[in-house]
Design brief:
homodimer; alpha/beta; UDP-N-acetylmuramoyl-L-alanine:D-glutamate ligase; 4-stranded mixed sheet; 26% strand; globular
């Protein structure tokens, strides 16, 4: 079944002590859509400016991502630039230029409105609402967010939590939202805000799912070299919803395995800048890492 | 089969914003011996002063820990005091009084020297060597350490690594020892220093084993309330070696499951101050958590 992905489509410039990587393909929707594309059809909703490289459109197309909902308008594509410290653990934002994304208010193509799986990847909650308003009885609605929206759009975000099935956020966002540092207690508090399923991402330490069926501790795929974790969370949730949409069975029963697939796609993302490593991955390489991960967990 | 445990036997005074807990039973050997005792016979090597409460000796005995190698001498028991900050994440040492442990140089009882499983819990590497010198062909030697010995006794510790089978250390110690922040790379470097098996502990994020059979990612048992993590690492390694000693089969094949048992015993340790919660645990309660953890990992 098809997955609709809305989020940011961006150009990311990432500096490290060793190299500059200007104007990489980035954005939550780019990472999530490519991640989901390994499992089945993806309908992308986004906006880019007339400076958006044709090579990146070709890259989406190579992944058979439907671009009917990707607007190209006059102006500049959303641009984020950041810098890593020597140990690659800390990243700081150098500049954020919203460009054409600032006034994005998409009308979905009719063919998109019946996508049974909806991923509201990280973008403003008002835009997430706007997309959701146009959907016709989706089977599963997943939303991601970031600290910025907790700071400047909390009422919108809280309203969104009552409309979605699965909320995905990282550990520091969970702490900020619930004022609770223990993830198990935070998960309970977030359920009370609406979502039936909640996942707290912990980066290299994996992720925790809380669902009516219980808890699942998803491992991260261990890597010897992390080049650039930008987009790893988006890849995780993209891989997760892509897997869910591609498999028969109940959401409850599929979710743990979907998280493992999401973790594996995220591991590829971390191995090079931007989408360089993810777009070189294959379904076979993903299956291989899932098997390896299962071996790492056997006792 | 029996497990010999050498390490510190101490009184710990732990302050929190809400309570003072003076002179709790503590020390690496106390935590590790109690943890191992759930699985089989334990021979404790340690030293206490004449101020050591009889109630604590009774507590060891309640756990059927052999005290033939526990010396009681005139003077003060090793005493550590520390304080937790409000969020319980940071602990600082207020005082360390070595007392009778300063000149500890035990001669092992003959009955101890044939213990097939040896745990050199955290104590000075020279004492770990001294105990090892007296052992007669042990089947498995496990050693733990702490940052202090990396700072003041590194040559002794490096010599020890060539004599042991399994080295257990936490992530910050691994970083300090190898100058490498990626745990997978650190594991490789530590193998080159001697041990066939290496485990890096990551606290609430579990532990990683590297062995000739491959890698195992051991989860931590998720807790809603962490009261006092002091001794959790010692409980982990005590539970681990206790399980290994109690089961048939090769070390390679048993190690992953032994880590899960160690994690579960450590989870009890964290739920109250000192050994209060661990000493209330039962083998049945441990088995129940192991089953729960297996469920949390199923995909």
């Amino acid at each position: 079944m098809s997955v609709l992905v809305v989020g940011s489509t961006a150009l990311d410039s990432i500096k490290t002590p060793k190299a500059e990587n200007p104007r990489l393909l980035g954005g939550s929707a780019s990472h999530a859509a490519v991640a989901a594309s390994f499992f089945g059809p993806v309908n992308l909703v986004g906006i880019v400016g007339d400076d958006f490289p044709k090579a990146y459109l070709d890259l989406y197309r190579k992944h058979r991502i439907n671009l009917d909902g990707l607007q190209t308008v006059s102006g500049k594509t959303f641009h984020w630039s950041g810098e890593y410290e020597v140990n690659m653990n800390n990243r700081r934002t150098l500049a954020t230029e919203l460009g054409v994304i600032e006034n994005f208010n998409p009308t979905l193509p009719a063919s998109y409105q019946k996508s049974p799986f909806v991923l509201l990847a990280n973008i403003s909650p008002s835009l997430q609402h706007h997309v959701l308003d146009q959907m016709k009885k989706p089977k599963l609605i997943v939303a991601d967010t970031m600290d910025l929206w907790l700071n400047i759009a909390l009422p919108d975000l809280l309203r969104l939590l009552k409309r979605i099935d699965l909320f995905v956020l990282n550990d520091s966002e969970a702490r900020q939202l619930t004022d609770e540092s223990n993830p198990l207690v935070a998960l309970k508090k977030i359920h009370r805000l609406g979502p039936k399923y909640v996942i707290i991402k912990k980066g290299e330490h994996g992720a925790i799912l809380s669902s009516p069926k219980g808890m699942f501790l998803s491992p991260a795929f261990p890597l010897e070299k992390v080049m650039d974790p930008t987009g790893a969370g988006d890849s995780f949730v993209g891989g997760l919803i892509g897997y869910l949409a591609s498999q028969p069975g109940s959401i409850d029963s599929k979710l743990p395995r979907a998280m493992v697939y999401g973790s594996v796609v995220a591991s590829f993302c971390c191995e090079d800048f931007g989408l360089k490593a993810t777009t070189k991955a294959t379904r076979a390489a993903i299956e291989k890492r899932v098997k390896t991960l299962a071996k790492f967990l056997k006792f």
